[in-house]
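DM between two lab members

TW: hey, do you still have the PucR family transcriptional regulator entry open?
JB: yeah, one sec
JB: this one, 538 aa:
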Amino acid sequence: MKEHFQLKVADIIKRKHFEQAMVIAGNEGIQRNVKWVHVVEVTSIRNLLNGNELILSTGVAWKDNMKLFVSMVKEFIENNAAGLCLELGTYLSDVPDEVIEMANVHQFPIIIFQKEVPFVEITQDIHSVIINQQYQKISDLENYSQSLNKRLLTIETYEDILQFIFSALDVQIIFRPKSKEYEFVPEISIHEQDSIIQQLEEAKTQAYDHIASTPIFLFGQEYAELFIYSKDIPISEFELLILDRTATALAQHLLRDLYVEEKKRVEEFEWLQGWLEGEHSLEDIHEYLTENGIKAKTNDAVVLITKQIPIKDKASQDGTYMKLLLRSVFEQNGFAVFFVEKRNDMTFILLNNRTKKNLKERIKKAIESIQDSEFIRKQSAGKFMIAAGKLIHSISDVHKSYQTAKETLRIQQKMTYKQIYYFYEDLHLYRLISQMSKHTDLQELASEYLQPVIQYDQKYNGKLLGTLKTYLECNGSKQETSNKLFIVRQTLYHRLQKLENLLGEDFMEHEKRVAIEFMLLVHDYLSSAQPNSVNQAK
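TW: and the structure you got?
JB:
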C-alpha cells in the first residue's frame, strides 16, 4: 500500500514533550494509529471512546485502588484505545506488575512521564498534527477525484479505472461483475487468486480489516462489486474513501458503456429489420457488409426463422446460448450470419460465403449438427423449429426470402406431423392450401369429401381416417398398409369396405383420389390444434 501518513504512537513518542518519556509495556503495539487525544481523570469513560484515542492521565482517579487501576486499563484495551500515557510522581509512583503484564499480552502501549508534563500543550501539538493530516487527506482525495473524472473522458474500458486505483493505492484490486468471474489488477497467480477469493468469502461473515468492498449499482440493481485487499497493512479510512469514489466513477463508465452498447444494438436491429423489409438499396447493403468486414463470394442468401416452443410450467431458457450455437454452426458451414431477435423468435440472414452454391444441402447439414449438439439434447426448456424462406440469388431480395420464411413458419405451425425444419420450396400443396385459405372456406370444402368418415370415427371410435391416409400414402398397397398400421389383412379389408360405403366405390380412381388426398392435407392444416382427430393410426 502506498504510504499515506497516519499518526502512530511511534511517531508521537518522538515529539518534543515525549523526550523523557519511556514505553514500559506493550512496546509491540507502538504502530497503532492515533486519531485523537483524551485526558482522562475519571473512573468511567467507556461511552466516550470511539477507538484509536491516546489516553493522557495522572492516575488521580485510581491512585489508591489497584483493582480500579487494572479495570480502567482493561476498559481502555476493550475500547481499542491507542495507548496510555501516565504521569508519575504527582499521584502515582509506579505501575503495578499486573497492569504491565496485561498491556504486554494485548500489545497495549503504556508510556510514563517521570516528571510533570503540560497535557494541554501535548494535546494541542498532537491535535494540530491530526487536523493537518485530515486536511491533507481531503486534499489528496479531491486531487484523486479530479484526476479520475478527467480520465473518464478518455478512458475506453473499465480496466483502465481499475489500473488507476491500483496506481493510487498500490494494493490488490479485485472486480467482479454480477454472476461472473473475479478480475484481478494486477494479475496474480491462480494460487494467489484462490487464496484471496477464500478470504473475500470469509469477510462476508466476519470483520476483516485487510479487505474492503463496495457494491456498484446500475438502475437500482447491484451490477458488480469492487474490492481492495491489503496483505500486510489494515485498510484506512482514506483507502475506503478512494474506493467509494472509484466505485462511483466505475458506475458512470459502465452506465455509459451500456447506453452506447444498447444504442448500437437498437441501431443494428433497426438496420437489419429494414433489410428484411426491403428498405435498403443494393449499394447500402454492400456498404453495410463492408463496414462489418464481410465480402461474400456469391450473392446467394436465405432467411431462416427459428422459433422456440417453451414447455408449460417451465421457465424459458436464455436464448444467448442458442444464438451462439446457431451462429457458430452456420458459420462453419460457409455462411455469414446476421440475426434479429423478437421474443421467442430469431431471424437469421444467411449469406453464402463459399463459391459453391449448395445452400440447401449445407443448411440441412448445419441443422442436423444443431439437432445432435449436446446443448439441444440436454436443454429442457422447450423445443424449437426452423423455417427456411425462398433461396434467393441477390442480397437485395432478402425481403422476399423473409416473407416466404414467415409463410413457412405459419404453415409449419399448422402441420400435424411436424419436423424440426421446413424449406419454403418443399411445402408444395401446403403453400397452395395456405393461399386458398385466405379466399375460400376450406373447412366446408374438406367436409364434402371427408365428413362421412370423420362422423363415423367420432360415432364408433373408429380409425377409418387414419387408415384412409395410410392406404393412399402406400399407393393402394394392402400389404404395405396393413404392415404400417400393424393390423391383419382381414381388419384392413373390413375398414376398406367401410370406406367404400362412405366415400363411394370410385374413391381410388385418379381424379377423386387426388381430390381426397388434397382434402386430407387441408384437414390436417385446419385441425392442427386437434391432432387427435387426425392421428388415428389403428
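TW: got it. The first strand starts at residue 22 and ends at 25. Residues 237-276 form the longest helix (40 residues).
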